[in-house]
Amino acid sequence: MERRSFLAGMAGASLASLVPNPGRAAGILPATAGMLDAIRGVDAHCHIFNASDLPVTSFVVEVLLKQDPDSPFKRLGHKALRILQRRAPSAREEMKWLAGRTHWATFTGSASLMRDAQTMQATEVAPDDTDARFRDAWVEIAEEDPESFNAFFSDYADTQAKSAAVIRSGAQDWLGSPDLAQMVRGNPGMVNSIAEQELRIRGKIKACLAFLKTFVRYRYENALTLSALHGQASGRRIGLFTPAMVDFDLWIGSEECSETVPSSISDQIALAARIATHSDQKIRCLAPFNPLRAIVDPDYFPLMEKAAGEFGCLGFKVYPPMGFAPHGNPDGLVRNLSCKKGITGAMVDEAMERFFALCARERIPILAHGSPTNAPGGDAVKALLGGPNYWERAFKKFPTYFKGSDPAVKVCIGHFGGVSTKGHSHGWAGRLAELMKEHECLYVDTSYFEGLLAGGSAANDLMARLRQAMGSAIVLERTMYGSDWSMLAQEVGADSYPTTIEKALDGLGLKEPAKDAIFYRNAYRFYGLQPSGKGRERFLRN
Ligand SMILES: [Zn+2]
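Above: query sequence and zinc ion SMILES. Below: predicted holo structure tokens.
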């Protein structure tokens, strides 16, 4: 978004919509220390955003598809993606919607979070809300962009298994509309499927639809779903989720380098505070930091200060593969941004330094995308910008922020340096394990270990790599459980992720104390939630 429209967004907001807690609705509980002390599981890396928070078309086309050309999304054209985005409630719409609701009471101390979530869905969320919105989007896609629609569903079917009947019944099952099924036209040359293939197709398409559904939901519904799937049901009682917002705007997009993102960052941050109160503090978001926005918008740093202050965000999320390094930004990279001429590496370094200073002052931690993936356009150089070497430069350059046994700024390199992805050959996991000995500010997380969900040789290979990387006490003290749901929702088996991770930790021979550390104790230290921690103050203030 350009500065003008960003500011217009701020000016247009009524004061009430930017105040975190404009009077608590009945039944909403204030944050208490007791809430924190009861928690035995933290998801330190997750997301609840919807398509209104992202430049969706560019993200899918320039990031997800460049990453994985076989991705299920390859058949969704721009038109179809824009239709999904239009159906997503904006942050402002959601604030209005939430204002009319009570809270998440049924989640607190309940015997069965899953059952409560279902009750909640039935009572709090109008039954036709999400499902109807999602179905309507597909009806619109079928009408406006039939090629995308048909290709999306039929493409799942293996050439061997392409059966018009499978696709038709699938569309009907998954989307719950006979009208839609009518719209799916069988492709010539389809043959009957065999049962096994059909199951595989069903699993994949179901996961893909579950993921796309998160695009059109209220973020609060995404939070509810995440908490229901990975909360009590997991046996680990994950009771605190710290979903990260992302700000890809200005880095990817059309010629103007900015696809219009319907929900402004300021609205998203204000909404996050509302969601925290409505979820009885089970959902405490991380604000996104985008150095490019910091350069072009003089009102951006005050907003970031507010995010950490009155809006109670527990941390910041940064996404280096968009095109910036923590420190030592190469001029060439930023100069190539067609939309932001005249920006130099030094300017980006300066914005990052100012950001680190803010984090140090507020003692607010940083979650960083941490695998050599998800660079716009599949750019191999950009993909490396969030790697251990660039972070090490920052740690060494700013010892007052990052050094010592109780560093002012802690940094989590997400996905354990991409140990589960194709990019693991860069060896970041091993390098991070080394760096952790020297830098106590450095943490990692277990998010998006899709290899474990896939099972078979993928799981065995990943386990071998984890055995190596997690072989020291230092690493075990600074590894946090994270899922990367809703991104993870596109993987088959995502619903049982906490159990999958727990089994993997068992497989590594870890006992209860080590597993407790990974599931919550390390996250408490990272987010400063322990008694007298700054994060606890922040948690209780809101
Ligand atoms: Zn993530």
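The radius of gyration is 22 Å.
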